[in-house]
UniProtKB/TrEMBL annotation:
Keywords: Membrane, Transmembrane, Transmembrane helix. This is Pre-rRNA processing protein. The chain crosses the membrane at residues 82-103. Residues 1-77 are annotated as: Disordered.
């Protein structure tokens, strides 16, 4: 408590002060709600520093002393934190001076201009059943040099020199709001006061006064009008009847009145206070029992930090509050969410004040979680939506029954009739997701029967999602995630690939307790099924495919998502919507070697379904190995088959299920039609490929996806089409045949006497008969020495499987070394080579190809 006469009664800041400044009974708690510039918020942010202004009480008193002030000088900025105390002092001093002179008009002018009151301390001694007992300390003096009018100054100095001292009897001061129905704001009882009124003499006064609230309903209405922004101007009028005497001479009773006018924020006038700022330094949520039956609720422990920058001291008794949140509409009543209490708060002058608040949420009211009309989010969705985005939300605080029976009833009545909006700082959830992984991944491509505009027209992903999420340090209660739903954006190297829509799916969670001082985390497992992936940039998709196929090391896809999380708590099940989350999905390569050798494709069981003069429609069973960890569902896919840049045909597969490891008997339908599918060179290239393939050469085929490969996804088809895949031509094999090299001609038998030969022929077809239209071939010994020629133009058939050809006429080369070797091998065998052209027919399709064979086992008979 300061004894310095120049010390202001109330330190000031340019920050807004509490609404309680409107009530004479609430002056003691006004300083609590100014922002602390040095106290950190619970979310780690800090406020900017603010410079201090002169004491609002001091400037208000100076305005009383100077009247309306000079026209040339602007009026100082004034506030209203302790108006009743100021009114008491001012009215008493004016009454003393007015009663001391025979010229009331001059005395009143002298009193307003010469009077200097410097409050030094205001404290609340105690709260009473009807009001507040306050202690007022101040220095009072007269300064004649402040009076502009010479006659008034001379009269004043002469009169005060004669009177010397003035004594006031005990009196009562009433404060009214004249423009608001003359509502009685409050009353104050002022005890006997003696003041030296001579010019330049200072009197220190120190007294207790009882302050009582007036019309509580009127005070409540004024407070609500101010909080709701309807109160732009307020005039306060103080009145008192003061009994005076000087020495032994009674000066009678004087009626004194004085008014102050308050407006909205202005540099030169008194201003209405606004809701003050504060810092939340700690926030903690935990479970607590709320009944003997074991029912539990949610408790919130909050620590607030404010700075009392005024020289006031008092103790706030325990108080109770209702915590309210907005409803769907602005005109709908607020929803009561929790009840809160504060303990006894000791306020020291010019010091930081810590306030501990405890709240309990017993249940979630139905209006809070029910959707608003017109499919708008529920009030809880709106509240949490602002909070998790880091935006300040507004909650409302209304007084309720005090937790302590010693709290005066009049305080409870006032605070319970006023609802105060309180900004609540949001909390950003950056780096919430520590780890995000997708396992047992299964891909599904669109089906031809998919309806346009539905999820089925997009590629779909299924798999198991594993998320490790940080738990905010405020959450110290049990939580179980039972469902997740998300809309995610997928990026590759900071470029957007597409959108992934994760439908609502069941989930389970497990709390992981912290170690080494780290925050607790939550392990969430969920299984997604058929989540559609919309490719938005085919170029980025091409880059991903290229990296997967040819990169050899896989890719990392970044996922940014807004997640709706269904959580189960002691308050019941609720949905936290649009929770931001980020993660990384590693995608392993298809082949670490940059090619498709690990696929090990093999074709068997060929069937000819139909033919034309230029085409074959073939059905085959394909076996291959899936070396990746991924599985896939392919309802339909069509791929062009090329060689040397020309399209020779196309292959179509339907309803394929690709599993891990070996995949067998995959049904593929292919069309061979170089003349119709390809360019002008295609037919020649096709004939050459067939000849090389039948002759056992190492040949390759190129498979390329095109615009219409995948139903409803031309962009994906075009993107994948940039990466034609060249693979070795699959070896044809018969069931049970372990020989990877096809040999169509085998085990020849030469008959010397009849000059004929027959061959064992292996047909790769299982159900169709091949017809040999003509043969023009030469048998060779040691690759170069002719043995004989076969020129046969009568058709014969080659049934499925293994068969014997008819005896074909041989035109021997009698003068060659080869023929001599044939004769020497009579009754035995030798190895021969063969080359020539063969015209084959399959249904309506015919083609002439060349054939080269070596190491054919030939038996020689008579």
């Amino acid at each position: 408590m300061s004894d310095n006469p120049s010390s202001p009664l109330l330190g000031s800041s340019d920050r807004p002060i509490s609404k309680h400044s409107q009530h004479d009974d609430d002056h003691e708690i006004t300083p609590l709600l100014s922002r602390s510039d040095s106290t950190p918020r619970y979310d780690g942010t800090e406020d900017d520093g603010q410079g201090r202004l002169p004491s609002p009480a001091a400037t208000s008193l100076r305005s009383l002393q100077n009247g309306h002030g000079s026209a040339k000088s602007p009026k100082p900025k004034r506030r209203w934190p302790t108006f009743i105390a100021i009114s008491i002092l001012g009215l008493v001093a004016i009454a003393i001076l007015t009663g001391a002179f025979l010229a009331p008009a001059a005395v009143e002018a002298y009193a307003k201009e010469a009077l200097v009151i410097e409050p030094t301390n205001l404290s609340i001694d105690s709260f009473t059943a009807t009001g507040v007992r306050a202690r007022v300390q101040a220095n009072v003096r007269m300064d004649a040099s402040r009076v502009n009018n010479k006659d008034v100054r001379n009269i004043g100095r002469f009169g005060t020199w004669i009177a010397r001292e003035i004594e006031t009897k005990e009196s009562e001061v009433q404060v009214y709001l004249p423009e608001l129905g003359n509502i009685l704001l409050g009353t104050a009882t002022v005890p006997r006061v003696v003041v030296d009124i001579r010019n330049g003499h200072t009197t220190g006064i120190d007294f207790f006064t009882d302050l009582e609230p007036g019309n509580i309903e009127g005070i409540r209405q004024v407070a609500n009008d101010w909080l709701e922004g309807r109160l732009h101007k307020l005039r306060v009028l103080g009145k008192a009847n003061v009994g005076l005497k000087s020495g032994l001479i009674s000066l009678g009773t004087q009626s004194i009145s004085e008014s102050l006018e308050f407006e909205g924020q202005s540099l030169y006038r008194n201003t209405l206070p606004s809701i003050p700022a504060y810092n939340i330094t700690r926030l903690n949520f935990r479970e607590v029992p709320i009944s003997l039956t074991g029912r539990r609720g949610m408790a919130a422990d909050v620590s607030l930090s404010v700075v009392n920058s005024y020289p006031v001291k008092f103790t706030v008794p325990p108080l109770g509050y209702d915590i309210l949140v907005p409803n769907c509409g602005v005109d709908d009543p607020y929803i009561r969410l929790a009840d809160a209490t504060t303990g006894t708060i000791n306020i020291e002058p010019n010091s930081e004040v810590d306030v501990e608040v405890g709240g309990i949420v017993r249940q979630l009211p139905k209006p809070l979680v029910n959707a608003c009309p017109d499919s708008k989010p529920s009030p809880l969705d709106a509240l949490l939506g602002h909070y998790i985005k880091g935006k300040d939300t507004t909650i409302y605080v209304r007084g309720s029954e005090a937790p302590n029976g010693d709290t005066p009833e009049w305080i409870t009545k006032i605070i319970s009739s006023v609802t105060v909006p309180v900004p609540f700082p949001g909390r950003t959830f950056d780096n919430l997701i520590k780890n995000f992984s997708l396992t047992d991944t299964h891909f599904s491509l669109p089906d031809l029967g998919a309806e346009p505009g539905t999820d089925e027209e997009n590629p779909q992903i299924s798999g198991k999602v594993l998320v490790i999420a940080n738990l905010p340090k405020e959450m110290n209660f049990g939580i179980n995630v039972t469902g997740v739903q998300a809309h995610a954006e997928v990026y590759y190297k900071n470029k957007k690939l597409g959108n992934l829509n994760l439908h609502k799916s069941a989930a389970k969670s497990e709390r992981i307790e912290p170690e080494d001082g780290e925050a607790a985390s939550l392990k969430i497992e969920s299984e997604i099924k058929n989540a559609p992936l919309e490719i938005t940039d085919e170029r980025v998709f091409s880059d991903v495919i290229q990296a997967i196929i040819f990169g050899g090391s896989g890719v990392m896809l970044n996922v940014k998502a807004l997640v709706d999380v269904t959580v189960s708590t002691v308050l019941g099940e609720l949905v936290i919507k649009k929770l931001p989350a980020e993660g990384v999905i590693p995608v392993k390569p298809i082949s670490t070697g940059g090619d498709f050798s690990t696929l090990k494709p093999k074709v068997g069981d060929l069937r000819i379904l139909s033919t034309t003069k230029t085409s074959l429609v073939i059905e085959a069973r394909v076996n291959f190995t899936n070396p990746t960890l991924y599985t896939a569902q392919v309802p339909f896919i069509n791929i062009h088959v090329l060689n040397n840049g020309s399209i020779l045909g196309e292959a179509t597969a339907r309803s394929i299920k690709v599993v891990h490891g070996n995949n067998t008997n995959i049904l593929v339908q292919a069309t061979w039609d170089p003349s119709q599918r390809g360019d002008e060179k295609a037919q020649k290239i096709g004939r050459e490929l067939l000849s090389q393939y039948i002759s056992g050469y190492n040949t390759t085929l190129t498979f390329r996806i095109h615009r219409d490969s995948i139903p409803y996804q031309p962009k994906i088809g075009e993107a994948l089409g940039r990466f034609p895949i060249e693979m070795p031509t699959p070896k044809l094999s018969n069931p049970g045949d372990s020989n990877d090299t096809p040999k169509f001609l085998d085990d020849a038998t030469f008959h010397l006497l009849s000059s004929t030969a027959d061959f064992t022929i292996h047909s790769p077809l299982q159900s169709s008969t091949i017809f040999i239209e003509n043969i023009n071939a030469t048998a060779l010994y040691n690759h170069t020495e002719p043995v004989g020629k076969i020129n046969y133009d009568l058709p014969f058939k080659v049934p499925p499987g293994t068969s014997k050809s008819p005896k074909l006429p041989v035109d021997w080369s009698f003068d060659s070394v080869g023929y001599e070797k044939i004769r020497e091998a009579l009754g035995g065998s030798l190895k021969l080579d063969a080359k020539g052209t063969v015209k084959v027919r399959l249904g309506q399709w015919t083609e002439t190809i060349w054939y080269v064979g070596s190491g054919i086992g030939a038996s020689v008979r008579l």
